[in-house]
Fold these 3 entries.
Entry 1:
Amino acid sequence: MSHLDDTTRTELEAAAFRRLLRHLDEHKEVQNIDLMILADFCRNCLSKWLVAAADERGVELDYDSAREHVYGMPYGEWKAKYQQEATPEQQAAFAARQAARQETQGE
């Protein structure tokens, strides 16, 4: 993508991000803990990254507004409708992932 001008690259990246949000919205069955186990990020991470990007540019964006954008509805509503309790297996896999991360960061 190095051959693209900055505006085109930014537009493509923004389009890909919007597609990622649509994809996550279409797959509400994918729980945040699943994302954290497999990819080390979740919908909340995307919300925090949006807030950080806004801060870097001097734009005001609060976390709740960012989460509503990422989730497509207020977080509390999404949580009540779609979030399931993490299973013991998910909790164990998440703990193992965290432990492995700490080991590699400690090297």
Note: DSSP finds six helices and no strands in the chain.
Entry 2:
Amino acid sequence: MLLTLDLNDPRPLHEQVSAAIKRAITTGDVTPGDRLPPARDLAAALGVNANTVLRSLRELRDEGLLEFRRGRGVSVLRRPDGRAALRTRVRDLLDEAAQYGVGPEDVLAIVKELMEESP
């Protein structure tokens, strides 16, 4: 499971980690039933504190996406709701657009342009 964080992202690290894990589940890199690497390994790979990863995992568990099992680690329970997943991706897009100085209205205009180009 390859996760990356954007160092320029203004969101707290635990939110970025949660979004990265959700993305991995949504895109099928990790599927329901798969076990996630230990929090320490994820933290080392991402260059963050293990407590940051644990906070993210707990939030995703509370959302019903992950399951904690003593002695078996953390497993993916289900995929996120498609609409909720899209909301997360759009939020990420808006955050990235803001880093480039592009406002929400401009992003919407780009989406409309692309919709008109699509068959």
Note: Strands lie at 66-69, 73-76.
Entry 3:
Amino acid sequence: MNGTTTLWRPTGPEELTLVEASGWTAWPPRLPEQPIFYPVLNEDYAVRIARDWNVPASGAGYVTRFEVDTAFLERYPVRQTGGETILELWVPAEELPEFNRHIAGRIEVVREFHSPTG
């Protein structure tokens, strides 16, 4: 590999359980209503999604960090979906198995948030 790029992924407890089952090396297949897998390019954006979306939806939100082969990522243009730090990659669901093969090392949980009542 010529180098890796750090990506983050906000996730809820169900998806995190599937990542753990993979040995922390792969993202699970998308559900039919999820045509895109979107890792994000900065931790702050991932924190906001995990805290503000995942916690209300499922009682917990996690921020994961992982490395992907930089050359492979060049096929996915960076999408700015809001403010200047709201940056994502859009990986079509059918390309996720190949994306997973380009993850270097393990997916790690770097932050977690829980509902005060959960």
Note: The longest strand covers residues 103-114.
